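User: Teach me something about this protein's shape.
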Amino acid sequence: MSQRVYPLFASGIALFLMLFATIQTSRAFTDPFPPLSDSLSTPLVQLSDFTGIALGSRRLAADLAWIQTLQYYGNLEAGQSDSDFDNGKGRYPLLLGYCKRVAQIDPYFKYVYYYGAAALGWNLDRLPEAEQLLRQGIAANPKEWRFQQYLGGLAFQKDHDVAKLARFLDSFVEQPDCPNLVRSILANLYKKQGDYNKAIRVWMNVLQTNDEGYRLRAESEIHKMLDLGALKHQKGYLLPNSPIDK
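Assistant: First, the predicted structure itself:
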């Protein structure tokens, strides 16, 4: 065998071994995401969903879909009052579809289940849709025990047990990843019960998240409840040097 043949033979062996290793690795690899057909099965699917998944950027595609979900739920509906808009009330018939679109692109995007279930169940009073979304979250994230707790909270809504629902939600508001939507629901419950100081405490939690989407509303609600007779400095509900501390 000539000297030229040896390098070619060695290269062929190396290429074969690399191909064999790649095949074995691909067999051992389990894709944690659902098949493409499932991920793109919602009626609200868009080209950006396919593009993101095809390019290996599911989380980016899910983030974009989530922004579009918030834009949908954050738009004023025809005939909707300012009060209903501020409190997340209305029809928003496609909200479940938008949330499911995000969840099917990235099933591990846990925030979409919390936010979507809270909006559907406690704001829009569509409990079956909220339960459907939560059960989808449980199937994808069986170790996320708080989804089960949210199902319990929806049961309080079904029973119209406002006191138990308030206690349930209050157990979440101090957690850093609690959506401000949930905090605003709790603050409104306390306001309806006439417990203005507790409502102010919750709105102060909202302010401390520095969420510009809720800041003006939180400050406005705190001013309203101070006017309704809340104790301005009780238990330090208002932060020192706060612009609302007037």
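Now, about its shape. The CA atoms of residues 74 and 85 lie 8 Å apart. The chain is about 65% helix and 0% strand. If you'd like, I can walk through any region in more detail.
User: That's plenty for now, thanks!
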